[in-house]
Amino acid sequence: MQKNLLEYLEHTARRLGDKIAFSDERESVTFWGLNQRSRAIGTALAQAVPGANRPVAVLADRSVMTLTAMLGVLAGGCYYVPVDEKMPQSRMQRVLGQLEPAAVLYQEKQRKLTEQLGDYPMLRVEDCLKGETDPGLLDARRRQVLDVDPAYVIFTSGSTGDPKGIVVSHRAVIDFTDWYVEAVDVREGDRAGNQAPFFFDLSVKDIYPALKTGASVDILPQKCFSFPMLLVQRLEEQHINSLNWATSAFHLVANSGVLQKHPPKTVRKVRIGGEALQARQLNLWRKALPEAEFVNLYGPTEVTVDCCYFPIHREFADTEPIPIGVACENMQVILLREDGTPARPGEPGEICVRGSGLAQGYYGDWDKTAAAFPQSPMNPWYSDRMYRTGDIAVENERGELVFRSRKDGQIKHAGYRIELGEIETALSSLSEIQEAICLFDPGRDKIICVYAGEMDSKTLAVSLRGILPRYMLPNIYRQKQQLPHNANGKIDRKALKQEYDAEHNGL
């Protein structure tokens, strides 16, 4: 029985050692080379960090080096926490403060950044790679790691301004990977174009299926997604035949018009996930690539990437919703009413998930874990955790689940899950801001900041860049003399949303 994610890499390195595993703009690495590199990093880490199963932060960029460092952490018997190198310093410090990492892995080009992060043990990846591998030490560490122990922690937005660390085990990723490879047909001959950064859970579907099957992955440069024609050229130059992209990237390319002019003809498999897929953009892709297979996937980070999937085999009108489909293997999806009873077909209910893919919970936060992962109300006899997603869906006449909406202030924007409350907390931290709220326009994928205060919108935008990650920054700013309040004295969000909708509909 497989217990550790590294077994994928080790088996494939013995079988396809000379094949390119991952590449970026600067370098490529074979499966054998990746295995050797990870073992060198793992040895250095095991020598520096006492004990197994400790959190290790990895300053992450879009590179082979970052991926190597993450796998090196697993080789050292610890679990990795990818941290966006471009994250504002204050937020990075909050993440590390919650995590209390046993070490921070960084690249030489990130040295200046490490000087501002606090008093944590720092290990330079380049130095780790120069050291000797100690097989005995690595084996001893491996024996201490169970399949239910963490493989990684991914931090997402939190409603109070504090990011939430979602802990995911080896077993959860193994079960998901084994299912995913079969369900969406990942093969040795695939060459995938990676879009998702490594601190985003979507990247898990690029990493571990490739390590299991021997498929190759090209880490697409971020700049390509600002210039769709450049992106298409990269796909063709690298002979990319498989895409696993966030819905926002999928929509962006469709809306750019490049598909009609120069479709990426090498692409044969397209998997989309992260936000609600729109039929109009899907149809543009299907028209451009009539031979390609398309799969819509759904799931939050708390269920190890995905819990539902829908292979798209029938036609949809531009205005039709695209189903999220049926449950993945060894996962059960239940729609629950407010009273905790199952919803009937056609009746909306909250998506609740149980199965082996559930995360271990939120790092260091037992209260949030208990609230989000309660006992299943349908099983009073033994421990049976489920995850309450906060998403509303219905079951259609075909037995497929169709996403409807969120039930709280959480949104999906640019492929990322965001709590609007965290943006509002950042706004309230600025002394020149009297009051502020954030709205979301899902049709335009825009975050709208409505505020009262002395600061003009341009200055406010600049100030927020020092507090929030880029993907959380509002797209539209509306300054008002004062904000409306309801009878309870709270800001009247409904009135502000109606005002925004009226203005937008009048354009």
Question: Explain this structure to me?
Answer:
This protein has 507 residues and is of the alpha/beta class. Among the domains are: 163 residues, 3-Layer(aba) Sandwich (Rossmann fold); 95 residues, GMP Synthetase, Chain A, domain 3 (2-Layer Sandwich), CATH 3.30.300.30. 33% of the residues lie in helices and 25% in strands. The chain has 17 helices and 25 strands. It has a 9-stranded mixed sheet with strand order 2-1-10-9-11-12-13-14-15. It has a 4-stranded parallel sheet with strand order 4-3-5-6, with helices on both faces. The protein has a 4-stranded antiparallel sheet with strand order 16-17-19-20, with no helix packed on it. Strand 23 and strand 24 form a beta hairpin. It is globular and about 65 Å long.
